[in-house]
Each structure stands twice: as C-alpha cells, then as structure tokens.
TrEMBL record:
Gene3D superfamilies tied to this protein: P-loop containing nucleotide triphosphate hydrolases (3.40.50.300)
SUPFAM superfamilies the UniProt entry points to: P-loop containing nucleoside triphosphate hydrolases (SSF52540)
Family listed: Belongs to the small GTPase superfamily. Arf family.
Organism: Anhinga anhinga
Molecular function terms, GO-annotated: GTP binding; GTPase activity; metal ion binding
Keywords of this entry: GTP-binding, Magnesium, Metal-binding, Nucleotide-binding
Name the record gives this protein: ADP-ribosylation factor-like protein 15
Length: 157
C-alpha cells in the first residue's frame, strides 16, 4: 500500500511540476522566421504606398524612393524584410545588384498607366522573370491603382 501512495505522490509532483513549467516558465516566444523579399516596379506604381500600408504607417508624406529602402513587415507568424528598389530609368539598371539573397519578388505595376509605361513594365517584369537569381523564386504581381477610372482589368494587363 505504501508503494501505491509513493507512486501517487510521484505522479502528483510530476503533474504539478509540468503545470508550473507550462504556466510560469515559458521563456521567450520562439523567434518568427524572417524572409527577404525584393519589391520592384516603375516609378509611381505604388511600391512605397503598399509597404507603408502593410506596416500600418500613415499614407501622408510618401515620397518616391530614390535608390532603395528596406522595411520590416511584421505578420503574426513571420517577418518580411522587403527591399524596395526605386523605379526610375537611371536606377532600374542597378536592380540586379540587390537580388542576391532574395526569397521572393513583389512586382508592382500601375494598371492605370499609359500604354508606353505598361509596355516598359512588361519588359522589366520579363527581364526579372528571366534573371538567374530570381527565375526560381515566387513572384507576386500586383496590378495597383485599380480604384482609378483608367485602370485596366487584370486580364487586360
């Protein structure tokens, strides 16, 4: 009988210890995984606005990116480190220098832009899709400015 009582006490101690550890000694939460993305598109396509919205920043005082900027976009289960590259003619030729280490691509285009700008965006997208450092990565293509009257549908773009 005493062996049974000792065994019961041992099981109770283990149970109490397990509950105590679960409630009081969790420690820091595990780190969220981080993913490095590159965000590209022509000037005025809305890259900075998109990232500001995702970071819950004010949409006021947004200026066109010259060069590049990096934003950490937090989500519940992950953090996206997004390198936004400026879309001006003189900057686009340097985009490929920032591709290394990327794990995905966000391509933003202005669906309400002129035919010439849309053709330039198509060419830049095809160039990115064929780049050796990007061709195997997932691409997210956003047709921005859908709220404008001149916006093309996704099928037209």
């Amino acid at each position: 009988m005493s062996d049974c009582i000792q065994l019961s006490f041992a099981v109770c101690r283990i149970g109490i210890y397990t509950c105590f550890r679960a409630l009081c000694c969790k420690g820091p939460p595990p780190p969220r995984p981080e993913y490095d993305l590159v965000c590209i598109g022509l000037t005025g396509s809305g890259k900075t606005s998109l990232l500001s919205q995702l970071c819950s920043e004010s949409p006021e005082n947004i200026v066109s990116t010259t060069g590049f900027s990096i934003k950490a976009v937090p989500f519940q289960n992950a953090i996206l480190n997004v390198k936004e590259l400026g879309g001006a003619d003189n900057i686009r030729k340097y985009w490929s220098r920032y591709y290394q280490g990327s794990q995905g691509v966000i391509f933003v285009l202005d669906s309400a832009s002129s035919e010439d700008d849309l053709e330039t965006a198509r060419n830049e997208l095809h160039s990115a899709l064929q780049h050796p450092q990007l061709c195997t990565l997932p691409f997210l293509i956003l047709a921005n400015h859908q709220d404008k009257p001149a916006a093309r549908s996704v099928q037209e773009v």
